[in-house]
Design brief:
alpha+beta
Length: 710
């Protein structure tokens, strides 16, 4: 009976109810907690994807900035050559850069308004009122006056120098020479023999300097010393003292300092093409922690920089206890062809004054002129100018991140699979002009000068009538007389005719500084404004206290260094690239006797290749011999704007950051009266973009990505 009593008792039934309620509560609690943890994990994973996309796009932005800096430096190098060719090569002209003081040769071509005529004296063209006429070349002609200390030299002024011996003989009838007049005639002939020899040396010097400006393949002074020493010893032994030779050698070394136009821009081109390869690195389909660790330890690490930085940025935003880093997988989604660049080159003629010594010593029986000059166009072929984009696409970066989330009350051993996607892209700048053209660097001048009524260029050569010339602003160019006068004031310290080496280099800095025509077309590195800016934005690497001294410590930074390897992952052949580049300069078929300079182009090519290979060795082992101490890995370019460049108020070039920070603003940022566009800046930034926009831009996608709206 007691048993039945207990069985019929209702005591303790609430425990069952409470147990059921507790289980339900625990299940609900775990559901709420897991839902919160899952949401947190999903947010964390999305943050990781955003960080990865931003890091990848930031790497792209840095690479695009490096391309843009190098692209503008290629134009600056052409400006440097144009300054040397147009200004330095013509300072031997009488009254340069003023107008001619005597009449022009009859029938000479009419020059453009405002252009300097680059004229020469021509003693073979005389009138009743003048012993010579001014012969307008209409193009710059390289002639570097060779002179002894304190002595004037008018070789560069002359096309044909009068034969005074012949003139003197005509003053006496046949047999009328006395012992005194014969001695006088002998002395005149001796002087003219020296002059004739000096003209030959002058001719060799002109060509030497032009070739160095174009093709010099070494930055140190050893090659110049050796070449000049040989030149002075063989050509000018009897006409210059050793002290005069030493002084002339020092002057020429400064005039040809640094790499020539072709080698400098060949190296810039190699760096740009390597950066293009980095941007177009194939998207990785399954990036894991083990894979990244292996890449970082390999010689090929730099080729995977974008992927490594993106993945590590993702991991830094993930809790290893919730989502094990070893289980995280990243898929790169961007297009394998981000950017396509094409080089822009041109052919042009650089005119040089050649003065061949006569076979017979100038005497009373030779022609009416001695030391006769020829103005000859030297064809510079495939001169590298810069790069343009030809793809028309959008550089972007997108990722999909997959991970397993381990939650507190989740019965699944490996966790729950989560994924997130994100996209970003560089924006706000440019690598250079979209429509960069060879015509931006040359001008066709068909009516070039005449010598004794003979044209100096018939246009039949590979460069036609093209001569180097760059727009400064509007229609103003390097040939404008007002522009040359501005450079002259800087080079002479406003004392016409008093050229100094510091002044010449200061004028070169001015001529290579940004000008109004550059604004809105190039991404130009601005000058630093404070020491604090230097620490965060630029690398203080090289300074100078004067234009000719680039080694002394001062408060003025002049060089900016940045990562831009010559070739990817150390896999490249500088020698092969140099040989191919030089073959474009001197195509097969050029040979001795086929040019008016008497050059053996086979030997010239061999010398240039050797110089470039020596420079490559310096890039690897001895940075003291490289330009601005650049290396194989790091480019080193001179800042386009330097504080000592020129006096304030001059508008042929730009001197402040506000004038060049135009990468993110209206096309006409710099307006009349000093007005500037809104929010000017320089360089690429990064912004997030929707996946739909990237898919429309050509990014490969799948069905899942088509549905994503963030």
């Amino acid at each position: 009976m007691k048993i039945n009593h207990y069985l019929r008792s209702e005591k303790g039934q609430s425990i069952i109810l409470m147990a059921m309620m507790l289980v339900s509560f625990l299940m609900f609690f775990s559901f709420v907690v897991n839902t919160g943890l899952l949401i947190a994990a999903k947010i964390s994973l999305q943050t990781a994807a955003d960080a990865a996309a931003y890091a990848g796009a930031a790497t792209q932005a840095r690479e695009l900035n490096a391309i843009s800096y190098l692209n503008y430096d290629m134009k600056r190098q052409f400006k440097k050559f144009a300054y040397r060719y147009t200004f330095v090569g013509n300072i031997g002209n009488d009254g340069f850069p003023g107008p001619p003081t005597v009449g022009l040769v009859s029938g000479a071509a009419t020059t453009k308004a405002g252009y300097y005529t680059f004229w020469k004296h021509d003693s073979s063209q005389t009138t009743a009122t003048s012993k010579f006429l001014a012969n307008p070349m209409n193009v710059p002609v390289v002639c570097i006056p060779l002179t002894t200390n304190g002595q004037a030299n008018d070789n560069c002024l002359q096309i044909n120098i009068p034969n005074n011996a012949a003139t003197l003989t005509k003053m006496f009838p046949s047999g009328g020479l006395t012992a005194i007049t014969q001695q006088l005639l002998d002395n005149v002939i001796q002087i003219q023999n020296i002059q004739n020899n000096l003209c030959q040396g002058q001719s060799d010097m002109n060509l030497f300097v032009l070739l160095k400006w174009l093709f010099r393949g070494a930055s140190g002074n050893n090659d110049v010393n050796q070449d000049l020493q040989t030149f002075f010893n063989t050509v000018l032994t009897s006409t210059m003292s050793q002290s005069d030779k030493d002084g002339a050698m020092n002057t020429i070394k400064n005039l040809v300092k640094g790499l020539g136009l072709y080698p400098r821009n060949m190296i810039n081109s190699m760096r740009i093409e390597t950066l293009e390869q980095f941007l177009n690195a194939m998207p990785q389909p399954s990036v894991t922690q083990d894979l990244v660790t292996g890449w970082e330890a390999s010689p090929q690490a730099e080729g995977y920089e974008r992927t490594i930085l993106a993945f590590k940025s993702a991991l830094s935003n993930l809790n290893n206890d919730v989502m094990a880093h070893s289980d995280v997988t990243m898929i790169e989604l961007q297009s394998p062809h981000q950017i396509q660049l094409a080089p822009v080159t041109t052919n042009f003629n650089a005119y040089v004054q050649i003065m061949a010594a006569q076979n017979n010593p100038p005497s009373s029986t030779t022609s009416a002129t001695v030391c006769n000059a020829s103005i000859v166009p030297f064809p510079a072929l495939d001169a590298p100018l810069g790069y343009i984009r030809t793809d028309g696409g959008v550089v972007h970066y997108a990722v999909k991140i997959k991970a397993k989330a381990r939650l507190l009350f989740l019965p699944l051993k490996d966790g729950i699979d989560l994924e997130a996607v994100a996209g970003a892209k560089p924006f706000g700048s440019r690598i250079g002009p979209a429509n960069l053209s060879p015509n931006d660097f040359v001008e066709a001048i068909s009516n070039v000068g005449v010598i004794s009524t003979q044209a100096i260029n018939d246009g039949s050569g590979p460069a036609g009538y093209n001569v180097p010339n760059i727009k400064i602003s509007g229609m103003s160019t390097f040939f404008q007389q007002t522009y040359l006068a501005e450079l002259n004031n800087i080079a002479t310290g406003n004392q016409p005719g008093h050229f100094t080496m510091d002044g010449m280099l200061l004028a070169q800095d001015s001529a290579t500084a940004p000008n109004p025509y550059d604004v809105g077309h190039y991404n130009i590195i601005p000058p630093t404004k404070s020491e604090a800016d230097m620490k965060t934005e630029f690398i203080r690497y090289a300074t100078r206290s004067s234009p000719s001294d680039k080694t002394s410590a001062s408060a003025n930074p002049t060089v900016y260094r940045f990562y831009a390897p010559l070739y990817q992952n150390g896999n490249g052949s500088f020698k092969t690239k140099a040989a191919a580049f030089i073959e474009k300069m001197f195509p097969t078929g050029f040979s001795s006797g086929s040019n008016p300079f008497g050059l053996d182009y086979v030997k010239v090519k061999a010398v240039l290749i050797q110089e470039l290979n020596d420079y490559d060795s310096a890039l690897q082992s001895n940075l003291q011999l490289t330009e601005n101490q650049e290396s194989e890995t790091f480019a080193a370019v001179e800042l386009p704007i330097q504080k000592e460049v020129l006096p304030s108020g001059n508008r042929s070039w730009l001197t402040t950051a506000d004038e060049v920070l135009s990468s993110w603003g209206p096309d006409n940022v710099r307006g009349d009266g000093g007005a500037y566009g809104l929010h000017p800046r320089f360089g690429y930034s990064v912004k997030f973009v929707t996946m739909q926009n990237l898919i429309k831009a050509g990014m490969p996608g799948d069905e899942d990505l088509q549905k994503v709206s963030h």
